[in-house]
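User: Predict the full complex structure for these chains.
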Amino acid sequence: MTASALLPVFALMTSLTAAVIIFTLPEQKHQLRTAVNLTAAVMKLLLVGLMIWGVFQGNEYGISFPMVPGVEFILRADALAMLFAGLSAALWLLTTVYAVGYLEGSPNRSRFFGFFSLCVASTMGIALAGNLFTFFLFYEMLTLSTYPLVVHRGTPQALRAGRTYIIYTLTGGAALLFGIALLHNFSGDLPFRPGGHFEDMAPDLQIPLTIVFVILIAGLGVKAAIVPLHGWLPVAMVAPAPVSALLHAVAVVKAGAFGIVRVVFEIYGLEAASALGLLSGLAAIAAFTIVYGSVRALNQTDLKRRLAFSTVSQVSYIILGLCLAGPVGVAGGLVHLVHQGVMKITLFFCAGNYAETLGIHRIDELDGAGRRMPATSVAFTLAAFGMIGTPPLAGFITKWTMGTGALAAGMDWVIAVLVVSSLLNAAYFLPVLNRIWFREKKDAWPEERQWGRFETSAWLLWPSLITAALLILAGLLASASFSPLGWVELIVAREVDL
Amino acid sequence: MTPSLLYAFAGAALCGIGLFGFILISHLLRKLLAFNLMGSGAFLVLVGLAQHRSGPDPVPQALVLTGIVVAIAATALAVVLIRRYYHLSGKTSLEGPAQDTPPDQARGARHE
Amino acid sequence: MTLWLMAGLLFTPLAWAVLTLLAGFRRGRTITWLGIVIQVLVSLALWAVVAGEGGFQYPLGGWQAPLGIELRVDGLAVTFVMLTALVAAASGLHAGFYLDPDKQWHRYFWPLFWFLWAGLNVVWLGNDLFNLYVGLELISLSAVGLVALGGQSEALRAALRYLMAALLGSLAYLLGVALFYGEFGSLSLSGIAFALSQDSAQDGAGFALVLMLFGLALKTALFPMHRWLPPAHGIARSPVSALLSALVVKGSFYIAARLWLELGAPLGSLALAQLLGLLGGMAVFWGGWQALRQPKLKQVVAYSSVAQIGYLFLLFPLTWNTTEVAALQAQQAMTLQVISHALAKAAMFLSAGNLIMSVGSNQVNALAGVSHFLPFSLFSFGLAGVSLMGLPPTGGFAAKWMFLQASLATSQWWWLVVLLGGGLLSAAYVFRVYRASFVEDSNIDHFFHPARRLEIIPMILALLSLGLGLMAEPVLSVMALAFANGEGT
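Assistant: Here is the predicted structure of the three-chain assembly.
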């Protein structure tokens, strides 16, 4: 076994080991814990960086061994895996920094960071999984390790949210398992493979394959928050801000979306999936989710809830992109995996900054916040404009690419969906920005605290600014080969055989 | 109908009577007796049926001897438990609501 | 070499039972720990022998059957011998720290513990029906004694209830043995199977099989004959509960499975197979539902045993008249389920005991805020719970996966409802406990940290049950020796 075959294992082990160490550290050892956390995050980022470089050169990293009779445990680093792994490794580091500042002085930090690391380990596993079985393994591990984070505060509200979350996700997991078992029953263990396994399927497989597809998507759709399976997401908002950031931007919803990508690309294959007529159905659901999420976001008064419905809407861009079934459209969808992550994490970081520094939770409390916290507000504004799709920010790249793809695929109605959604995005973000920048502060902030030299703690501020910078760079440098878009085009060139 | 088969049928009948008692009687000691009756019935079936088929056979005799030892052990354990239960709760059957432990024994349950 | 191993395996527990009977609690503990080391080493050695050379038949003391005792040492048997050694060693060590040495009746834990171990080994290795009966009785009687160790009238009541059920079950089994012997003049399973293959029209034998399966199902606490189990397992001291749930119920189930696999094809019927599976499925739902409603922590775990036992009975419909591949899958699933449930449930009971000790109450709600103190035991409990829910990568998941595959391969899709629904239900009751531990509004200010050694043991068991899913393939490859070499001997 060569060292390069072990890279994916090491990438997984960094956060797993961090979790074990953190769990065994006593609660009071805050600095040691932070050190362990950051070291692991940096190491993981380096390892993933190494792998990305290797994959770019055309190397494949992987390891597999038999687990249960007939099924292998496969970890494999391919270009698609690296897209998700890179996103989660980068954002883990930033979120860790943020969480250290956010939770300063609160109880149960050992528990929090332990499960936090476990959660990232699962995300890494999801990215690197080489077949549906391994994917499912980490998918369920993610469910289990995020539950303690959602109920972290232990309030009745948090516990209720945790219950909703767990009911949704475990039921989704059961559906996914059912689908995987069915698929395994009639075609054996299927490793993920570019182009899928069903290019020339037997005609009698068509109906079972359609049924299995629906079950798989239903199972994955719970985490991807496809309407009507999105109910857990707005409720889970009671979690601490770094958790929301993680759930929305990196881990949970992306795990679902990423799973759908894997199923469509590498199990069924785009060709077979569209031949079965599955993609048009999926596209319709995704389009509906996009519009529905935006409409619901309009009338939310709680800032985080508005962001949550925005997530419901935005994640389905990824799925809609897939359904365009052309190289450009697919690239638009995939790149949104990264873009949405960076933009949404910025928004949640900023929302957390407002909440922790000024005690702001509702949108109408934001009046005049721009003057009190200019840096945070600038980051928030950038991310909001990104979501709306203003050039040259990351969101614009997504929408532009998807629009081009839609025209190429002859699905003109998708353009309409994009336009409507952008208008709705503007309709629910601009009033917020208006309050932040142009309204006068009415009365005292709900719960103000002085925190460090800057407008808020440096631990909270820097991650928000860095992600904001990233979302500008992703837009400006979109044509560079190491931008998200450049990488996605590499994936499309390698994986999608069209 | 050979005598051996008669034994076997008698054994089956004993089993039936024993089962009847085992299920219907609530007094623990009598339940235990019913169980012993069933046991004897089973032993009779074991010996009788085998002899009916292949004449005198040492194996079932040996088995029944072992079986009797086992039955005695079980009966002894049951008697000890019934006696202790009676001392602690003053009851002779398992029916009725659970009773609280007399105070002098309650310290026995520190952990659970 | 094998001579010593076999003698060690059966003789040591019996000798140690007598030895510890003569000693007090503390000396008994020392003796027992010494014995545990020997037993574990012997079991390991036997396992290694079989894994290396395959299974064999062993006449004890050179006496041949039927009067002598013949043992069947195959892959499945040594796998369970090994499992027993593991769980019994863990429970024995834990009991040494956990039980209060100053209560004089606790000294009887040791002899009972050893008798139980002896009985279990007899059952795993026994080859003729009557020896299995003796082993079963040895198990039942010592298990009842262990339950009664709790001391209060409630414990005795549970013990008596358990004893009555166990006696009835044994008698039904014995009657079946008598009928078989009367019919075939043989007590060995393979002998009866051979006789049946010569001449298939044996009506009485079918009745005997049903009678024996009834008795064994009663002892395994299959729904609706499970009523004795929750009080007994719930009230016993935690190391005892661990032994009972992990091993004792598996003993009778193992015999039922062996009977079915050897005699099921000629004597069983579709209705019988489906009925047993159906009862198993109902057990899964009823046990899970009851577990969800229990206010006491250990009752939750005990009812969860009722549910988990239900899965085992899916073996019957999935091996009756099905293809060899599907039957093998079902057997593998059963083995994995036995092992993973044994490890997970032992971990769960031991850690539940620690948690109860820590918060000083046996109620689930008393766990409020416990996760605050980062008790190691809560993690062990949680990990074991993951296995019970059948989530990857645990052994419970591997078992569920194999059951799913076997059900799909035999087109018995209705078992999918049991497997998937049962998993969700068990998630519900396990998460109820997690949830209680996360509640923040309680003001418990004192929390008693049990000794590290008490906490480490359940953790090891839980990790093993977690790792089983990743190691399923090698474990099953040893087990498979059973089905290759065990046929027709």
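The beta strands of chain C are 56-59, 70-73.
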